[in-house]
């Protein structure tokens, strides 16, 4: 079985997934403006999303049982930073995609990755970067679905 992902060209040469609405995202950033920008970008490509101000809030929302396919995690935040939050989420068994989105010093990126990130992008984050992430996620989902169907035969 093949899964086809259709795309729409909404201008500026960027292709957007037609039905990415099944993907949910959590934006974790202490800066209100950044949260709003990331949410606007997610909305633009049809990804349902929610935002919180720090890592502790990200952990707390997962403790309620709520789950997200994608977590966009800042590094430097009060209360609980992105490194600690990522480690905590991974220790809770959260295996969803966690992407670091930060302007942290280059020497800190490896520490952030080692905490359990799936990938890292430097700020400023843009629609092309987000589109790349969503396309990779859809590709992985398609491959997983195909593998599951093949395994059941």
In short, what is this structure?
Keywords: Phosphoprotein. With 153 residues, the chain is an alpha/beta fold.
What do these coordinates show?
- The chain is 44% helix and 20% strand.
- It has 153 residues and is an alpha/beta fold.
- The N terminus is likely disordered.
- The longest helix is centred in the C-terminal third of the chain and has 26 residues.
Explain the layout of strands and helices.
Blueprint: E1 7-9, E2 15-17, E3 24-28, H1 32-44, E4 48-52, H2 55-63, E5 70-73, H3 82-91, E6 97-102, H4 106-114, E7 119-122, H5 127-152
Parallel strand pairs: 3-4, 3-5, 5-6, 6-7
Antiparallel strand pairs: 1-2
Structural class: alpha/beta
Please give the alpha-carbon distance between the first and last residues. Answer: 12 Å
**Spatial shape:** globular
Mean pLDDT: 80
Using only C-alpha atoms, the radius of gyration works out to 16 Å
The strands making up the biggest β-sheet line up spatially as 4-3-5-6-7
Strand content: 15-25%
The main sheet comes to: 5 strands, parallel
H-E string: EEEHEHEHEHEH
* Helix coverage percent: 40-55%
Uncertain stretches of 5 or more adjacent residues: 1-21, 144-149
Task: Give the number of DSSP strands.
Answer: 7
Features:
single chain, 153 residues, alpha/beta, 5-stranded parallel beta sheet, two-stranded antiparallel ribbon, globular, disordered N terminus, Sig_transdc_resp-reg_receiver, phosphoprotein, ST_Response_Regulator
């Amino acid at each position: 079985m093949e899964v086809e992902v259709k795309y729409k060209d909404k201008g500026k040469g960027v292709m957007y997934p037609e039905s990415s609405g099944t993907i949910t995202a959590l934006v974790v950033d202490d800066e209100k403006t950044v949260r709003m920008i990331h949410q606007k970008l997610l909305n633009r490509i049809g990804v349902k999303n929610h935002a919180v101000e720090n890592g502790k809030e990200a952990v707390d929302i997962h403790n309620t049982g709520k789950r997200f396919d994608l977590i966009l995690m800042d590094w430097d935040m009060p209360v609980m930073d992105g490194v600690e939050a990522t480690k905590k989420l991974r220790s809770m068994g959260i295996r969803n995609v966690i992407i670091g989105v930060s302007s942290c010093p280059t020497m800190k990126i490896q520490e952030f990755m080692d905490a359990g990130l799936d990938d890292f992008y430097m700020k400023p984050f843009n629609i092309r970067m987000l589109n790349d992430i969503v396309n990779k996620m859809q590709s992985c989902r398609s491959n997983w679905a195909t593998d599951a169907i093949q395994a059941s035969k």
